[in-house]
Write a structure and sequence with these properties.
Number of helices of chain A: 8
CATH architecture of the largest domain in chain B: Orthogonal Bundle
Radius of gyration of chain B: 22 Å
Largest interface: A-B, 46 and 54 residues
CATH class of the largest domain in chain B: Mainly Alpha
Distance between the termini of chain B: 47 Å
Largest sheet of chain A: 6 strands, mixed
Mean pLDDT of chain A: 74
Oligomer: heterodimer
Number of domains of chain B: 2
Number of helices of chain B: 9
Order of helices and strands of chain B: HHHHHHHHH
Low-confidence stretches of chain A: 89-103, 112-119, 133-141, 157-165
Shape of chain A: elongated
Largest sheet of chain B: none
Structural class of chain A: alpha+beta
Helix content of chain A: 25-40%
Helix content of chain B: over 70%
Number of strands of chain B: 0
Number of strands of chain A: 11
Number of domains of chain A: 2
Chain lengths: 280, 200
């Protein structure tokens, strides 16, 4: 291309740019975005959008965002806040005591109520109240919203310099920590519970853990592997869900090490673990 | 919103008040929307096969994430006493983010400047669809931006007179007070620089 031709094309680009800028600087686009145009003005902009590609782009770009977008942004912010605020597991030393929990993390007891507890409770009430309560216990789980997805981080003896390194190998009797973070903050009054299981083929066994639930539904789990655990490859299941609506271990066994199993009231995240023999 | 209201709202949002976060998003969203859309369009966004609406919405969300990342680090930098309203501060952050996004070429596949053997001929010779037209134009505008950055104010003035306003050499001489030799020398320099930038 000759220099003159190149410069003329650049001149043309500059003129087009200036014309576009005049179009895009029209303050009516601001009011379109804000949703404050009159009906006549919006009609003018629609007609303008039909006259050129630039105007069409401007109309599309400045068209108002709806309440769904607002909700989406708020949710994304809350999810990011959880990632920023939920602390990473601290390096564990056998001789240390657990640090005091920062408020408002709360320790929870993961065992379900004794099997007959509800029935005994209801028996003490009047017949009408008992009927209503029994109905609610059946109905409420159906109206609770879908539980948000969770992501998990697992750490064990491979923590270095305070950074979390995903643990893939643990030894029997070794302590571990896991954090389950929800994609969006879990709201509502139905309490959360957690379970941890180890599965190999048809064998699935529960692991005792201490759990702490944060204000947004993040769960921090601390546990110790069974010292008699045999070496080999296991699937570790980290489960968080609504109290009283947790899965049966058979449901996890049937999932056959899928990375995530998500149901209405619980989420299970799996990790493959190699259990290596303890050093003599 | 006045400065006092902005400070109070921001303080509540930083403390994790969900309603304050919701209100903050509602207040800042229109500002970010307008600045993102305008900067994107004025800087000659080429599309890269993406819908402009999707691009705008993604960028708005990206700006919000930038503002609140690492415990609201960027938003915490706003100080009412510095004279800029919260909305204008956020608007400035939005514009910078979009300019950086366009320069980086992320999701912007048409950032390359055309060479003499490439798309210039395609763009001129073939009836283009809207995407190709936009992408070709964006490439010219990128080259124009580079030229603008490299030229002195005198050089840009000569370019403006001869090639944007399309004045003749005698008219350019009259506007600038330069001799015809000087104007022709500038014209030659402009041509060489443009070729050099195009081949970079």
């Amino acid at each position: 291309m000759k220099e003159d031709e190149l410069l003329r094309n650049l001149g043309q680009a500059a003129r087009e740019q200036a014309a576009s800028e005049r179009l895009f600087l029209d303050e009516r686009w601001d009011r379109l975005a804000a949703g404050t145009l009159s009906v006549e003005e919006e009609g003018e902009l629609r007609r303008l959008a039909e006259t050129s590609e630039d105007a069409r782009l401007a109309y599309e770009a400045f068209r108002p965002l709806g309440p769904e977008f607002q909700a989406k942004v708020v949710q994304a912010i809350e999810a990011q806040r959880i990632k920023d605020v939920v602390p990473l597991p601290v390096p564990w030393r056998p001789e240390s005591n657990d640090p005091p929990l920062p408020a408002p993390w709360q320790r929870v007891h993961n065992d379900p109520p004794p099997p007959g507890r509800w029935r005994r409770q209801l028996a003490g009430w009047s017949a009408a109240a008992a009927t209503m309560a029994a109905t609610l216990v059946g109905i409420v789980p159906r109206v609770l919203p879908l539980l948000t997805p969770y992501v998990a981080e697992l750490s064990g003896a491979s923590i270095t310099r305070g950074e979390v390194v995903e643990a893939r190998e643990l030894a029997p009797g070794e302590r571990f920590q896991a954090t389950l973070r929800p994609d969006t903050a879990v709201r509502g009054y139905w309490p959360l519970r957690s379970r941890v299981f180890l599965q190999r083929e048809e064998t699935i066994r529960r692991v005792d853990v201490d759990s702490e639930v944060g204000p947004t539904g993040a769960v921090r789990l601390t546990g110790t592997l069974d010292p008699d655990l045999s070496a080999g490859t296991w699937t570790l299941w980290l489960v968080v869900g609504r109290w009283g609506l947790m899965p049966d271990p058979a449901e996890l066994r049937a999932a056959a090490a899928a990375p995530v199993v998500k149901e209405r009231h619980w989420v299970a995240v799996s990790r493959t673990l190699r259990i290596h023999p303890r050093a003599p | 919103m006045d400065a006092e209201e902005s400070v109070a709202l921001l303080r509540a949002a930083l403390a994790g008040d969900g309603r304050a976060v919701d209100r903050l998003v509602a207040v800042l969203r229109p500002v970010i929307h307008v600045r993102v859309a305008r900067t994107l369009l004025i800087r000659g966004w080429g599309g890269g096969g993406r819908d402009v609406r999707t691009e705008v919405e993604d960028l708005i969300q990206d700006v919000f994430m930038r503002l609140i990342a690492k415990d609201y680090r960027v938003l915490r930098r706003w100080k009412a006493e510095r004279g800029l309203s919260l909305e204008n501060f956020v608007g400035m952050v939005s514009e910078r983010f979009v300019r950086s996004f366009l320069r980086s070429g992320r999701r912007n596949r048409s950032k390359e400047v055309p060479t003499a053997s490439e798309d210039l001929a395609d763009v001129r010779g073939v009836e283009p669809d809207a995407y190709r037209l936009a992408a070709g134009r964006e490439r010219w505008q990128l080259l124009l931006d580079r030229l603008r950055r490299r030229l002195s104010s005198r050089g840009w003035q000569i370019f403006d007179l001869l090639f944007i306003r399309e004045l003749s050499v005698p008219e350019a001489m009259a506007e600038t007070g330069l001799s015809s030799d000087a104007v022709y020398k500038w014209k030659s320099r402009l041509g060489q620089l443009a070729l050099e930038l195009m081949s970079e």
